[in-house]
Specification:
The chain is α+β, with helices and mostly antiparallel strands. It is 34% helix and 24% strand. The protein has a single domain (4-121), classed as Aspartate Aminotransferase, domain 1 (Alpha-Beta Complex). The protein is built from 4 helices and 6 strands. Keywords: DNA-binding.
Length: 126
């Protein structure tokens, strides 16, 4: 089961990702960004851990229909965001893939120059 520490680690292992706490009214809300754009939001201190992730608008309703733990994004554009309850019911691999997909969607929307900088900064795997 993905806990708060693992969730933070998965988000921060994305190339160029950083964590911020930009909301004074919600000081515990972790916002994970790449090049200034949000790809994940979560309160890592919450008793019921969940994460909001960007999602392809065609895939979002399919995920919601297949998994009761996935609902339309809380206080976000419901067409493009899902909120995922991390209760242990979803396979860890699915959660990781949703985080990576959210990151990839945000990166795809970046200007070409920023995408190229991220590609150059990506560590090479051997």
């Amino acid at each position: 089961m993905i806990d708060a520490q693992a969730l933070r680690a998965v988000c921060l292992e994305q190339n160029g990702a950083g964590e911020e706490f930009p909301f004074p009214s919600s000081p515990d809300l972790s916002v994970f960004k790449v090049c200034g754009k949000i790809f994940a939001l979560t309160d890592l201190t919450s008793e019921t851990l969940s994460v909001s992730l960007k999602c392809d608008p065609e895939l979002a309703p399919q995920l919601r229909a297949a998994h009761p733990e996935i609902v339309p994004g809380y206080h976000l554009n419901k067409r493009h965001w899902n909120t995922v309850a991390l209760t242990g019911a979803l396979p860890d691999q699915l959660v990781r893939e949703m985080i990576e997909d959210s990151y990839d969607l945000v990166v795809a929307g970046l200007p070409r120059a920023q995408r190229l900088l991220l590609d150059r900064a990506r560590p090479r795997r051997s």
